UniProtKB/TrEMBL annotation:
Residues 12-265 form the Protein kinase domain. The chain crosses the membrane at residues 288-309. This is non-specific serine/threonine protein kinase. Keywords: ATP-binding, Kinase, Membrane, Nucleotide-binding, Serine/threonine-protein kinase, Transferase, Transmembrane, Transmembrane helix. Residues 261-280 are annotated as: Disordered. It comes from Actinocrispum wychmicini.
């Protein structure tokens, strides 16, 4: 039993309890080695699943410790106490955004935009470093008395099973702030962080999350998976941006860096027309069916025309001009696990602003792509082609898209990618 005055990790003296949650207890503590106040989160884990979760917590915490941003709660240390992992965090005298909403109700749009811009800045820096938060929600947004907002718990909640499906098939935590693709069973990725930020800001301006609340977790999870968001009524000028962040298709959401830009500048988001066609993994098969039918229909015409033209002199086509590439693409694996990996592909304009681009590569053996964002995907056997989403067709300097791939091999293989522009 841990109590006030206990020494954790040989240096952190517990001085007072800050709060308690599903994951454990958070204490204010004094770092006796560096003479500073810190927060110590004692995680409540037990059994075999607890041991596995503890290992994941250690791994996630070490990853999060690499992120240093003024709007992210810093991870100072990871220690063990009585066999349980403990996180030593930056101490910020603050209240959570959920507490502020509970006390004040719906917040003004300009105040929420200021909070959201700070949180998006920290999350954008995390995404640049290949870190997915996985649990953006009002409970994890801390507001200091001077208005500074900081995001906490990078990957830690997900590592111990909060807001996810546990090994026993029971959903732990509320799914109210999950992205639809995560609620449907996909792995959390950069676009799901964007959606969860949108849900968090929606709850701040509207007073309730976009899919509502309720005691029936399964029913709520199904509503989230369907992705039908009620249009905001109290969000004012922030409403169009919220709807962009909350688009059901991950490929149609902005990047976190774009979200930060619009939240901090107030610049309105693009105007979206309803999409009549979305390229998915199933579309190449449909295209192949149409191509087969078209080939059969044209066969008879081809025979007649071929007989008429077989003796006619054929023009010699001039060789295509050799042009310097106008764009470059780099493929970087940002995270990996035994059965797959996450990659970020950066497109850079070489000599002039691009007005359209295509990145293509051959998929290494044993690999398949299960999710892609910030672009539209076409698959033809092992040939992969990615074209821009609506908002990143024009590239002045650089843009990027990300993907989740599965692999049969022990190590992910990085393919060679080519970028072309019309």
């Amino acid at each position: 039993m841990t109590g006030k005055g206990d020494l954790v990790g040989g240096r952190y003296r517990l001085t007072g309890r800050i709060g308690r949650g599903a994951m454990g207890v958070v204490w204010r503590a004094h770092d006796e080695r560096l003479d500073r106040t810190v927060a110590v989160k004692l995680l409540a884990l037990g059994g075999a699943e607890g041991d596995q979760a503890g290992e994941r917590v250690m791994r996630e915490a070490r990853l999060a410790a690499k992120l240093q941003h003024p709007n992210a709660i810093a991870v100072h240390d990871v220690v063990e106490h009585d066999g349980h992992p403990c996180l030593v965090l930056e101490y910020l005298p603050s209240r959570s955004l959920s507490e502020v909403i509970a006390e004040r109700g719906a917040l003004p749009a300009d105040e929420v935009a200021r909070i959201g811009g700070q949180v998006a800045a920290a999350l954008a820096a995390a995404h640049d470093a290949g870190i997915v938060h996985r649990d953006v929600k009002p409970d994890n947004v801390l507001i200091a008395p001077d208005g500074t907002a900081k995001i906490t718990d990078f990957g830690i909640s997900r590592a111990v099973g909060d807001a996810t499906m546990t090994g026993t098939g029971v959903i732990a935590g509320t799914p109210a702030f999950l992205a639809p693709e995560v609620a449907a069973g996909d792995r959390a990725a950069f676009p799901s962080d964007v959606f969860s930020l949108g849900s968090t800001l929606y709850a701040a301006t509207e007073g309730v999350p976009p899919f509502g609340m309720g005691d029936n977790t399964i029913a709520l999870l199904l509503r989230v998976a369907e992705g039908q968001v009620a249009p905001p009524r109290r969000s004012g000028s922030l409403a169009p941006l919220l709807l962009w962040l909350l688009r059901t298709d991950p490929a149609e959401r902005p990047t976190m860096r774009q979200a930060q830009h619009h939240l901090t500048t107030g610049e309105p988001p693009p105007t979206f027309a309803p999409r009549t066609e979305t390229k998915t993994l199933a579309k190449p098969r449909r295209r192949a069916v149409f191509a087969t039918l078209g080939a059969a229909a044209l066969l008879g015409i081809g025979l007649v025309v071929g007989l008429a033209l077989r003796d006619a002199p054929q023009p010699v086509a001039a060789p295509p001009p050799t042009l310097a590439p106008t764009c470059q693409a780099t493929y970087k694996i940002t995270n990996s696990w035994p059965t797959g990996y996450e990659a970020l592909v950066t497109v850079t304009a070489s000599s002039k602003p691009l007005r359209g681009w295509t990145v293509s590569w051959m998929l290494p053996g044993g690999q398949s792509i299960g999710q892609l964002w910030n672009g539209t995907l076409s698959v033809d056997g092992s040939s992969i082609r990615v074209e821009p989403a609506t908002w990143n067709t024009a590239v002045d300097r650089t843009t990027n898209f990300g993907l989740i791939a599965s692999t049969d091999g022990p190590q992910p293989v990085t393919p060679s990618v080519a970028c072309t522009s019309p």
